[in-house]
Amino acid sequence: MIHDKSLGEETVNFLTRMVKGDIEKGVYHRPVATRFPPEPNGYLHIGSAYAIHINHSIASQFHGTFNLRFDDTNPLKEDVKYVQAIQEDSAWLGYTPEVYYGSDYSEQIAEAAKKLIRKGKAYVCDLTPEGMTEYRGTLTEAGKNSPFRERSVEENVSLFEQMKAGVFAVSAKVLRAKIDMASPNMNLRDPVLYRILHAEHYRTGSAWCIYPMYDFAHPIQDSIEGITHSLCSAEFKDHRPLYEWVVTELEIKEPPKQREFGRLNISGFVTSKRYLRELVEGGFVDGWDDPRLPTLKGLRRRGVTPEGIRKFLGELGVFRSNSMVDSAMLDHYIRQDLKERCHNVMAVIKPLKVIITNVPEDWSEMLIVPNHEGDASKGVREVPFSRELFIEREDFMEEPTPGFHRLSPGKEVRLKGAYFIKCEHIVKDESTGEIQEIHCTYDPETKSGSGFNARKVKSTLHWVSARHGITAELHLYDKLLKESAELSESGNVWEDLINPESLIKVEAAVLEPLMAEATAHNTYQFIRHGYFCVDSKYSTEHKLVFNRIVSLKDSWNWPANHSK
Q1: Tell me, what's the pLDDT at 5?
Q2: Is 273 marked active-site?
Q3: What CA–CA distance (Å, rounded) separates 480 from 446?
């Protein structure tokens, strides 16, 4: 039994109302049971997490069980590496369900197929794939019965056993359900139940050469595991009549009930498994863990926490139909989670040197600054302050425009946690005219935390000691796709769709010296620049690389923009 309100808070939606109604009517004489059935042919993404969250939350709310079952019935696409990755991602996300494998039910599913054959509800068909397409009909025209539809039960049993024994070649024969070739639902026009595949399976090896189709295996697997509510995404709604046909014809008592919810789509993200594969295999992104992808591997490498994702998923509720969510909402919950846990540090992205002229060349001092601006319990740290500093190049303007209150000639600003400085002189490159240094004086009477200062300044700048700071590479991420991008089923020219500013690399940012000890397990708020973490893929002992998890700016107008 599971009941964890931190992962599945008690909420009311059309699915929970249905489950509650079934409980009140006594439909099932067993606990509520749900499952998440991924195919081990790819990696989990944010849409997968949404499906996991819904199934787990409902099981949790009704004190039931939740299974992770691998739908491993296609050896041509499956790999144990995906099995391991899916389990790792699920555990990282905070869900540790019982794990099952559809391939473990191979005998039971084959026996179910034989039962349908003996009932006259399934037959072996010799039509080629092209012939089946021709006989299937169209959305406006009924299909035609296969010329092999009226084979005797005995012949079908014998042929199916021969299929199972490996007598026939791939595509030579299939087992089909005998339903209705005139049905307006194309999924009921004698769908294929089993096909021949002479391929090595990652779990069962060469023990099988016939494999069930998902629509046939799924309801049987659900029944074996005692699933009560088979909750899946909306594209399976047209498949529900076949699910119900299977459990009815197999005479399953208290059969599981399939119901659908809308898929989660997020603006600027690609959540189609096919499109993700095109991006990865085409080299348009940096692998399945590219931080611009919505894969859980990518989100984890980017530095997003599982708590932030779960809070986001919990606030979405349950969609009845496929829905597009503004990516700003996801950023909002990531930001809300990080701002409470991250220490603040200073980092200069585009350095401009400042020289304090009224101190000796070797002068430096250790200053005490808070680790978190709004939480004194997070303590303080020492930061070196020296004669030569770096500030952001954008924080200085030789000829300030109206409203510019940062550093400019003759003007005074405060350095965060330090002193007031005043610009006295500018040094430029003689050939380009570019500003190279700013010479300033500092006022030792204006030390932060020392009490009241008579003078007031309009701006406080962050900074890093040039002598003590460390150099790092920063990766600044934005939406992968352009705002105008429209994906096509017939093929996408990704070069035209990808946002050219989805990844900006800052080669030589300067950070506080304490960041030399940063690890991939920590996240930080770089003052004014956003939340960052160490890139676990490219950081080495000789080179630090940080990923920006999310910016500081929250464009999601909460709660005004929120609507379940």
Answers
A1: 41
A2: yes
A3: 45
Distance of CA 251 to the CA centre of its chain: 39
Q: Note if 39 is an active site residue.
A: yes
Q: Which of 114, 237, 273, 341 is catalytic?
A: 273
Sign of CA pseudo-dihedral 287, 292, 293, 294: positive
Looking at residues 292-297, what average pLDDT do you find? 96
Q: Is 480 exposed, middle or buried (0-12, 13-18, 19+ CB in 10 A)?
A: buried
Same domain, 37 and 25: yes
Last residue of a domain, one of 261, 285, 319: 261
DSSP track, 429-466? -TTT--EEEEEEEEEGGG-TTS---SS--S-EE--EET
185 and 244 assigned to the same domain: yes
Domain-located, residue 143: yes
Whether the Cβ atoms of residue 144 and residue 137 lie closer than 8 Å to each other: yes
Q: Which two tokens mark 559?
A: 């709660």
Query: Per residue in 498-549, pLDDT tens?
Result: 999 999 999 999 999 999 999 887 899 999 999 999 999 999 989 999 999 9
Distance between CA atoms of 148 and 173, rounded to whole angstroms? 11
Would the pTM count as exceeding 0.70? Answer: yes
Query: Which CATH number goes with the domain that contains 331?
Result: 2.40.240.10
Lowest mean pLDDT among 114-128, 171-185, 363-377, 382-396: 363-377
Predicted local confidence at residue 522, as pLDDT = 87
Among 173, 240, 263, 387, the one annotated catalytic: 263
pLDDT band at 452 (very low <50, low <70, confident <90, very high): low
The reply to whether 263 belongs to the active site is yes
Are the C-beta atoms of 345 and 369 separated by less than 8 Å?
Answer: no
The per-residue pLDDT of the chain, averaged, comes to: 93
Confidence (pLDDT) at 513: 96
Please spell the DSSP secondary structure of 334-365, one letter per residue: HHHHHHHHPEEE-EESSEEEEEETTS-TT-EE
d(CA 34, CA 225): 9
Q: Which domain holds residue 131?
A: 14-261
Q: What is the pLDDT of residue 1?
A: 42
**Would 562 be classed as within a structural domain?**
no
